[in-house]
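Pilot study result, target chain (125 residues):
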Amino acid sequence: MNLPLHFGLLGTLEAGLIALLVGLLVYALWHRLCRWAGWTDGHAIGWACVIAVVASAGIDAWNLFYMGMMRLESPLYARLFLASIHDPNELGSRVVLEVAGAIGGVALGWLLFSSRSGEKNSDTP
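Predicted structure:
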């Protein structure tokens, strides 16, 4: 996300909360679009999950993948790469909480919006 967050567990929890809000907002937009286009809730949930995870955890997940797959044999290259990451000690847990927060935000949005639209549909015989 590359936002100025705190370090340690507090920064990880902040990133997860921001991802939850991103997931909720993205699902709200996709829910509206799918109702307009006549698509099912599955389209809204699927695309909202993909976009929310990429938007909230994309950069941190890429840094985690790059650090695990590339050979940082030189101490200079490793130091330069680690200097570009905000709080590299908590990178793995931040990615996990960002992904969980994004998917949780989509699930929360589905619960909020589907219960409201379900009440409207139950009035008609």
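One observation from the pilot: The two ends are 47 Å apart (CA to CA). A full batch analysis is planned for the follow-on phase.
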